[in-house]
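Why do we care about 3D structure at all? Because function follows from shape, and shape follows, mostly, from sequence. That is the central idea of this module. The next example makes it concrete: a single protein chain, its amino acid sequence, and then its structure expressed as tokens.
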Amino acid sequence: MKPSEMPDTEEALSWRDRRRQAESDTQHISEHPENERCAARIRKSACDQKWEIRKVIAEGLAIYPEALSRELGTVLAMDSNAMVRAAAHRSITRRSPASALSSSHSSIIQNELERIERKFGIEARQEAFRLAERTAFLHIRTAAHDIKNILTHFNVDTLQLLKLRPDQATESRLHRLDKGREYLIRLVGMMEAYSRDLDMKFQNEDLVGLVNESVQAAREQVLIEGKISSPVECVVSGSSSIIVTISRFHFSMVLTNLIKNAIQSHAISERELRAGRVDVTLSKSEAGIRISITDTGKGISTKDLQRLLDFVPGNSSKPGGMGYGLPICRKYTEAHGGSFTMQSEENKGTEVVIVLPEIQPS
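And the structure:
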């Protein structure tokens, strides 16, 4: 929308008042991404005649909802003012540096593995991959340890600081500090889970019981993240009694994460899920024990699915996703001697299939 098309009531405000409004809207939508009226005001501010106001919006691109960030990012990255363009580019880079890095490098890694196979054979390729994986685990463990040490210096009580009634800009920075710290804490936990050496304790378990417990755990995690999961029905079906030899801690993490993803695939906003269904089907075959997790969610595009199936940590199809969930699920499944496959169609849903051998590794 052009500045001349803005409502007279807003146009009558001084540019400094409009800038304060833009700062307030930026903070509000980071906490209430479903607020369409706020998003509409932000769109107007992105077209304001004053570059100082457009710069505020450009600086907020890193924390806006994904669709709004993409819409405005394209415009502001080509703004007539250099300050606005620079702010937009910084925000776009801050928003997803890890996923951009991993997606650009995964094909290079795949090409190198194929070159090794052509030159030295399949066994050399497998050895090269295992060596690269062990090296990656070491680097990720080291990085996680360093981040944890740095985080100890960020134990600031932001709630107490907010009680001092700081100005809007400082209040916005404090909120971002709090969100950033929480994100880093979760990220470090995922990095450690992915890179640590596994201490597998195999024992016989009732698979149906474990799946039902995982459904409940997944619902609780969805609730902790601020969503009510009741619109999504979860149905466990198939063989009524399957005893499987697994490491309970590790395999329950796999099931819980996959069922949680399936439930959240029905999200229509940061807080809401639409009605849908998740089916967990258990069966036995010659290949082993088959676990299928199917949802009626929004599905994944072909491009995003291929990126996810590279299983490179950091690849995520969700805004704010850390990209460690599926690599962890595959790692833990393969540690059980099992296989992990996934297929999806946009706007139709996703199916993940795990097949475990009846006799587990010793």
